[in-house]
Amino acid sequence: MRSKWQWLPVLLGGAWLAYHELSRRTIRPRNRRYRRAGIQVTTVPTLFIPGWGGNAWTYNGMLRWFAQQGYAAKVLTIRVDYQGHLRVTGHWPAGAANPTIQVLFDRNLTKDYRQQIRWVTQILRALKQRYGVTAYNAVAHSWGGSAMVHSLVNDGADPTLPRLHRLVLLGTPVNEAPSLTAPDPAYRNLLAGRQNLWANAGAEIHNVYGLLAGRQTDGEVPVGQATALRQVVAQSPVRYHEYPVQGVGHGQLHSTLRMWRLIARLLWSLKKDD
């Protein structure tokens, strides 16, 4: 019996390595299957940023569906490795229609999102330097959205970064204080730096959050933590909209067809209310 149990660590280790490898397999670059009518077509790239514990599976299905439905073309994967270096794969042809960029963090189980703030800013700077990107969209889930908001507020006026066009937040906590009457330090920093939003005048932020039946939460992020963003963008030149989605849990915000359709509409529809 002992000889059987001695193989258990090996089996568990092998299973973890297999999971780790499979969870990093992003979809390959792919063109739109056809040219969809009735959408905006631009060369502005859209970044897809996962939250805590997120991996390739966070957005694989969504990005595959966007290409199949004629909304967008997957062009690049940008992986931030364990040393904080950017690993870029894929091909970005000139004039690609609605190009999408999948972001992965090898260190995806961090104790907070401060490192992700730095990595997001690093990615944006690299896109401007390497590819001449001057404007971008982003879709960000959970703490990935928190990092995106902090990057925008802290570094949005940096001339080495492209300017935000549209940001879709999915279940993003902005003020995680136990009591919303006493803001947490990260939220106070957002309020103190909100003047940087003027550098991104005209940008759109679409704040999407889930509501489970009879509860003011998506199961992970209370509504109040997500809607705390209102005060940060209040009286700024950024256009801000909220989208409460009934019956959708935290993980479903990026993984269901209902949400994919909403996100596509917010990013590329000619009319946001159609």
From TrEMBL:
SUPFAM superfamilies: alpha/beta-Hydrolases. Keywords: Hydrolase. It comes from Levilactobacillus namurensis. It comes from the Bacteria. GO terms for molecular function: hydrolase activity. This is Alpha/beta hydrolase. InterPro entries: AB_hydrolase_fold, DUF915_hydro-like.
